[in-house]
Design brief:
By secondary structure, the chain is α/β, with parallel strands linked by helices. The protein is built from 18 helices and 15 strands. It starts with 13 loop residues before the first strand and ends in a 7-residue tail after the last helix.
Length: about 475
């Protein structure tokens, strides 16, 4: 419980607990079950913030150092139990700034009593890289670097930089989290630290990591898997593993990257399991379009007039509100419809959406849509927590009636739905973005634009259905 970390005493002979009021418990007199619980965790936390100790516990700092070094204290219990004693020096950097001698005395006392690791914690995340370098350099004169660790928080946006600075100054253990998850502003992001140690020569030529090199290619997958487990939308701007980490938009940028990727990419994205993304927008030139077409398997000559036709279509659509920046599926469908052919699957002849409030005050949204497959008309109905959800359900909850397309659409799920109003007034143009997924873990993004929010949603939804059917090689409607 982070809110009570600041109240933890010098836990070598005692452990502080907070149950309505602060109490300090003698470790040696605690029952065996509680002792074993503490030992199993094998983390000892000690704040080096002398002022806090003196004010909160009325304990002279000299006595705390004695407690850390006591022969029958908790340090010895850890060593006796053959646990890897990791001494977390909470608030160390602030403590060092307030009283360097006391802070170092605490570290040395724990180290002399058998601590394998002395972890220097920037608990409130306020220390800057140049301070970390200076302080770690001083600490390493007392504690060998092979026994030092760093635990950085990101409150100034420097958790990764502080961790790298600490390693460069002598630290050999780095603590962090996947995607930088953590309290407040987060912890040091392992998805940035690990590839930096492996792929940047200043570190890779000097240090070794206990990670198999082949696993580095799984970093992007690992990052997105955690977001999936936590039901979080991935941060596309994360270094190395973000979807936008190797995205290129401007025509000149794309042209340069195609000639020499190092002009705008500091590593090969495939080294971390990521991929290059050529963004198509109204800023796009031929280089963007051709490069993007290659990534989706369309080979075409640069002189082909269809390239200009597609580029003009993209610009015209973006003028009225479309944005293919984050709608790759809709762009691919547009490109294939102009450059090659794409089968016609489900024809939605008409649809009707209604929203009403019943006598009990419950709002009910319902929809019905007339679909046509192989010349056969199918009326589908559905309800939802909104008109768009009702229309989506009307189609997807009736997939069994779509005969040859049912097996392709059963695993289709709508993951995210976003609406953006592009101008003001009740007649404003609306842009809808939909993220969809299937049982294979494939995610795709589609877009629709209209002055009517239902129509915009409908266009994005139809694109999602068409893209799913196309990618699964579904047969065309007769």
């Amino acid at each position: 419980m982070y809110s009570h970390k600041l109240t933890i005493a010098g836990q070598v002979d005692c452990v502080a607990e907070y149950n309505g009021k602060l109490s300090v418990i003698d470790f040696k007199t605690a029952n065996k079950e509680r002792q074993e619980s503490w030992i199993d965790n094998y983390f000892m936390q000690c704040t080096a913030y002398a002022i806090m100790y003196e004010e909160m516990f009325n304990t002279p700092i000299e006595q705390i150092v004695i407690m850390l070094a006591s022969e029958d204290g908790t340090s010895q219990i850890f060593v006796k139990e053959k646990k890897e004693f990791m001494f977390d020096a909470e608030h160390f950097f602030d403590g060092y700034k307030a009283n360097p001698n006391y802070a170092l005395s605490c570290l040395k006392a724990a180290f002399d009593e058998g601590a394998r690791w002395i972890v220097l914690c920037d608990t409130n995340g306020g220390t800057l890289p140049h301070e970390v370098t200076k302080i770690v350099t001083e600490v390493s004169k007392t504690i060998p670097g092979k026994n030092l660790g760093i635990h950085a928080h990101n409150d100034t946006g420097n958790a990764v930089a502080n961790s790298l600075a600490a390693v460069w100054a002598g630290v050999r253990q780095v603590q962090g989290t996947i995607n930088g998850l953590g309290e407040r502003c987060g912890n040091a992001n392992l998805m940035s630290l690990i590839p930096t140690f492996f792929l940047k020569s200043d570190f890779s030529s000097k240090f070794q990591l206990k990670i198999k090199p082949d696993n580095i290619k799984k970093l992007t997958e690992c990052s997105r898997l955690l977001d999936e487990i936590l039901n979080r939308k991935p941060n596309k701007h994360l270094p190395y593993v973000g979807a936008a980490a190797f995205s290129h938009k401007g025509g000149l940028h794309v042209s340069a990257v195609q000639k020499d990727p190092k002009t705008y990419e500091h590593i090969n994205p495939e080294e971390v399991g990521n991929s290059r993304n050529i963004v198509v927008s109204d800023q796009s030139g031929k280089s963007n379009i051709i490069s993007r077409l290659k990534t989706i398997g369309i080979e075409i000559e640069e002189s082909d007039p269809k390239i200009k036709k597609l580029l003009d279509e993209v610009k015209d659509r973006e003028f009225i509100g479309y944005s293919y920046d984050g709608a790759d599926a809709s762009f691919e469908l547009l490109a294939r419809r102009i450059i090659s052919k794409i089968p016609r699957y489900i024809l939605i002849k008409e649809y009707d959406v209604s929203v009403k409030k019943d006598s009990s005050g419950v709002i009910v949204s319902s929809a019905k849509a007339q679909l046509e497959v192989d010349g056969e008309k199918i009326m589908c109905t559905g309800e939802g927590n909104g008109p768009v959800n009702a229309l989506d359900n009307a189609i997807r909850q009736n997939v069994d009636r779509l005969n040859k397309y049912s097996k392709y659409l059963k695993d289709l799920k709508l993951v995210d739905y976003k609406v953006r109003i592009l101008n003001t007034g009740t007649e404003a143009i609306t842009r809808v973005s939909i993220e969809s997924t299937d049982s294979k873990g494939k995610n795709w993004f589609t877009i629709g634009v209209s002055a009517n929010i239902i129509d915009a949603s409908f266009k994005a939804l139809v694109d999602s259905l068409d893209y799913k059917l196309f990618k699964d090689n579904a047969p065309a409607s007769l």
